[in-house]
Amino acid sequence: MVAMVIVVSVLLIGLAAGAVFVRSLGSAVILLGTVSLLVSATFLLLAAPDVAITEAAIGSALTTLVYVLVLKRTNSVDSLEDGSNLQTGKHSEPASNGGSPTGGSHA
Amino acid sequence: MRKVIGVLLIASFAFFVFSLVMRDLWAEDPAAVRTLGQAAVEQTIPQSGAANTVTAIVVQFRGLDTLGEVTVLFLSALGVALLSGEFSGRGLKEVFRDDGGFILYHGARLVLPIIILVGVYIVAHGHLSPGGGFPGGVLVATAVYAVLMTGVKNALSTRLMAVIEGFAGLAFVGLGLLGLLSDRFSFLANVLPKGSLGMLFSAGIIPLIYAAVGTKVAAELSTLVTSLTGSDYASAEKAAQGGKR
What DSSP line would sit under A13-59, residue for residue? Predict the structure, then answer.
């Protein structure tokens, strides 16, 4: 159990560093959600299931969700648009040859 | 500059995590940790009748703080509603325009009742097992969001949600006034019968307060995600007008 806590803590700090230094805001948000999930696991290992449930629900689910929606609102995320290109598959392939970030999303 | 601040933040975070972990795992006798917790654990069952000590602390020993937390959550949801044009009737553009494909469409409808059931369970058993009003309410809101991802318009009426939320908040304050009206003359005093330990209907006003908190949190966070995705009532009306033009 001690080894598990140490592994989770090291992973936690690595992911937090990644969230600070990563270029894309969308990736930073996803990394922060992962940090929250691991913090929740740490709480569980330290025998605090109450806080673990709250952290998993609020920190990991709701905060990530609100961040993603706000990034989408402010149009400051490119990776989400890439995702929608992936979704439409080969239809958006000819449209996004110029590498425009708003590919086929307004179709 | 950004890198320096980042390194400082990471270093302090690492220090915090490792001091937390070291203290609990390698301390010989964490006496300073134990004294307050021990007192709380000893007083929980005679004073509140709740099996879950954390809930007894959150709802009874510091119930006024919880009322403040609910107020803070309400004010932030109000801020989001103001910024997203909820009150001016001009909702935001909707984020999810198509139904998201077969798997997402049917998967969201499949997990919706399960997530809501788990959320209600967590709220209703807050005084018996880990959980409570806040995480249970958030779970219900994420279930609503899972369905909103499939491009549903006009999924829930934000006005009805506001009414539900207001009544839940009034129920919290009313349960507190119940203690003020009794012979103990104390706001949020636990005046209802405690029942037997570990039963669903026990611990006096604690499950009732958590039910009110859970309803309030679920209502306001569902409204929050609905207005942020732009699939609320106002946006649906606006889209219908846009379609007519």
Answer: HHHHHHHHH-S-HHHHHHHHHHHHHHHHHHHHHTT-HHHHHHIIIII
